[in-house]
Amino acid sequence: MELGLDQWVIWQRGPVLLNATILYTWLVMVLLVLGSWLVTRRLSTGARISKWQNLLEVLVGGMREQIRQISQQDPGPYLPFIGTLFVFISVSNLLTILPGYHPPTYSLSTTTALALCVLAAVPFYGIAQWGLLSYLSHYLKPTVLMLPFHILSELTRTLALAVRLFGNVMSGALLGAILLAVVPLFFPLVMQVLELLIGQVQAFIFAVLATVYIASAAQAHEEKREALIQRPAEENRETR
After folding, report:
1. Distance between CA atoms of 104 and 5, rounded to whole angstroms?
2. Are the beta carbons of 147 and 89 closer than 8 angstroms?
3. Structural contact between residues 24 and 101, judged by C-beta atoms closer than 8 angstroms
4. Could you give the CA distance from residue 200 to residue 89 in angstroms, rounded to a whole number?
5. Tens digits of per-residue pLDDT, 28-39?
6. CA separation, residue 208 to residues 36, 154, 156, 157, 200 (Å)
7. Which residues contact 206 (CB under 8 A, 6 or more apart)?
8. Please, which residues bridge with residue 17 across strands?
9. How far apart are CA 236 and CA 229, in angstroms?
């Protein structure tokens, strides 16, 4: 087993190279795009729908409900981004049942890229909802001296997202390979099933944490706005 997909170079010409990480990432992307097209090309609003449309509706409905419960907000704006993260990680880990396949999440560069997407999504959704100045002001609360700590917090939790996903996927794959070499019969099959389960759990955890990070920024601004609205009302009652 390769200890690093990034070092597994499949094709190279000058500075341009194709390694296993890029290959498996694009494989997953192609499968997702093709599968989405096949499922959605004949959507029906009638009583009779295909089993694939039914599966898609269950998946989307489940993700919407999870986002609503976690964020306590309308899941509509967050669903495309959070849903894409979950489906990509989930399918990447599920495809480990195919011989010769290695999940792109087995590469630290892939998990870092996913975490950086979350890092960019947090201010993107915050600014889109509250405006640039209003969003940036929370980095200076309660005092401007907290600015470096707020920035450090954003960076460290991004690093934690990347390392957590990479570490769990890599450890599961390595453990399965070791057991396959030591006990090459029934036990590795059990570990393979367990690895698939862990992969789905990691996809769910990554999506949940991304939702929490994104929604927390909007929630903080919502609480600030409510406080500003309630303060004049309290002052009016006191003057009476």
Report:
1. 8
2. no
3. yes
4. 8
5. 999 999 988 888
6. 23, 16, 17, 13, 12
7. 85, 86, 89, 114, 161, 164, 165
8. 12
9. 12
> How many other CB atoms are there within 10 angstroms of residue 51's CB atom?
7
Maximum average pLDDT range among 5-9, 179-183, 212-216:
212-216
Q: How far apart, in Å, are the Cα atoms of 219 and each of 1, 74, 138, 143, 209?
A: 45, 12, 11, 19, 15
Token pair, residue 65, equals 């409900």
Domains in the chain: boundaries: 5-239
Which two tokens mark 4?
């690093």
* Token pair belonging to 56: 């898609």
pTM: 0.78
Provide the H-helix boundaries in the chain. 20-40, 51-71, 79-94, 108-130, 132-137, 147-182, 186-239
DSSP 143: -
Nearest-angstrom CA–CA distance, 104 and 166: 9
Q: What is the pLDDT of residues 34-88, one digit of tens each?
A: 988 888 887 777 777 888 888 888 899 999 999 999 888 888 889 999 999 999 9
Q: Cα 211 to chain center, whole Å?
A: 8
Q: How far is residue 61's CA from residue 98's CA, in Å, rounded to a whole number?
A: 28
Give residue 184's identity as a one-letter amino acid code.
P
Q: Give the contacts of 201 (CB within 8 A, at least 6 positions apart).
A: none
Dihedral angle, C-alpha 190, 193, 194, 199, nearest 10 °: 160
